[in-house]
Amino acid sequence: MLGCIDCWKWKWSKCPMAWKGHYTSKKKGTGCVAEACCSHGLWIWHLFVGNLGSLNDINILNCSPLLFQLYHGMSPEVEFQVNGNTYNYPYWLGDGIYPKLATFVTAFAKPASEIDKNFTNFQESIRKDIKHAFGVLQGHWRILSLPA
Asked: Suppose 130 and one of 4, 13, 74, 125 were both cysteines; which one would form an S-S bond, judging by CB atoms 3.0 to 4.6 Å apart?
């Protein structure tokens, strides 16, 4: 696993008037969106910044270089084994909004068995890494906290 993937929205207070319609969302007002993938150690594998504030996570992913690389077989070279099966593609933990691809692992919406519940709890605790990475970008380096 290379880490977690998620999007972060932030306010852009100095947005030029000509661009305001593109960068305005109903919930957040005028802003931008960043997409990132990070590991537990806060290693950022992918950062896609400056997307229109009116876009949601699905639209960001559709214009993301990460998805383009996955669809065209240009993803990072990874090899690992699970239950005796060898896999050559990386995977990221995402929330339920990401497409049903083998590279995006999501938690169970309604875990039925104890194993499913444990997996969902573990996955949700690991997904906090991406929120932590955005917090570090925002707090330590003041990236995403100041108006763009």
From this structure: 4
Q: Per-domain residue ranges for the chain?
A: 3-139
pTM beyond 0.90: the answer is: no
User: Where is 8: in which H helix or E strand?
Assistant: strand 3-11
The residue behind tokens 């084994």 is 81
Of residues 42, 21, 39, the one with CA closest to residue 30: 21
Mean pLDDT per block of 10 residues along the chain (148 residues) reads 80 77 73 83 83 74 84 81 84 81 84 92 85 81 59
As given in the structure block, the two tokens for residue 30 are 């005028």
Greatest Cα pair distance, the chain, in angstroms, is 57
